[in-house]
């Protein structure tokens, strides 16, 4: 870190490309990349070749670009590193081994703790961008009894899902994300009335958390909580 680099939260970002006549959007407080979410500077590095579709599918060729981008973040002053796609948890071990700062690639890392702060009769709902690819390898739960307490639901087929699969992806109205997320939560709760907490896998969901908490009366966790935890340890 040079003397000009402020200690910052580093975010490993997916490719976005550019669309004509589309202006960059200022991150809203509460979102992953807004400094106001943490009262801490935020810097980003794009992971070369990492688009939503191939990160969600799990392209192993992306591991080296993830590591390279993480090292650039540390050189620029990052004191903790996360990512803007929960499916990048596949590269958690490699990235954490490549840098000397805390690394939390996905909110899914919170799952073991959430299971233990709830009664054993309660389930945790994992709300994901695409449930077809959010399998055992991502959940990381070896205990069968723990796995039985996890229910997974996705927003595949919704507006946000369709937009993000495009190269480059167009902006999505936050109201559409709220709609996709709240509809998914309602379906999960109808099928699993013992849900006691909700975990957002997708880093694009945090702004929907207040609406879900109000509508469902349940605690909602997301990637920003993991980032705050890491930043607390390095202040």
Key features of this structure:
235 residues; alpha/beta; Rossmann fold; 2 domains; 3-stranded parallel beta sheet; 10 helices; 7 strands; 37% helix; globular
How would you portray this structure in words?
The chain is an alpha/beta fold and about 240 residues long. The protein folds into 2 domains: about 10-105 and about 225-235, Rossmann fold (3-Layer(aba) Sandwich); about 105-220, Rossmann fold, CATH 3.40.50. It is built from 10 helices and 7 strands. It has helices at about 50-55, 65-75, 90-100, 110-115, 135-140, 145-150, 160-165, 175-190, 210-215, 225-235; strands at about 10-15, 40-45, 80-85, 125-130, 150-155, 195-200, 220. The strands form 2 sheets. Strands 5-4-6-7 form a 4-stranded parallel sheet, with helices on both faces. A 3-stranded parallel sheet has the order 2-1-3, sandwiched between helices. β6 (about 195-200), α9 and β7 (about 220) form a beta-alpha-beta unit. α8 (about 175-190) runs parallel beside α9. The protein starts with 7 loop residues before the first strand and ends with a helix. The mean pLDDT is about 95.
Q: How many structural domains?
A: 2
The amount of helix comes to: 25-40%
CATH class of the largest domain: Alpha Beta
CATH architecture of the largest domain: 3-Layer(aba) Sandwich
Compute the number of strand runs.
7
Largest sheet: 4 strands, parallel
Given the helix and strand composition, which structural class is it? alpha/beta
N/C terminus separation: 16 Å
The mean pLDDT is: 94
Q: Low-confidence parts, pLDDT < 50 over ≥5 residues? A: none
| Strand percentage | 15-25%
**Radius of gyration using CA atoms only:** 17 Å
Please name the CATH topology of the largest domain: Rossmann fold
Number of helices: 10
Shape: globular
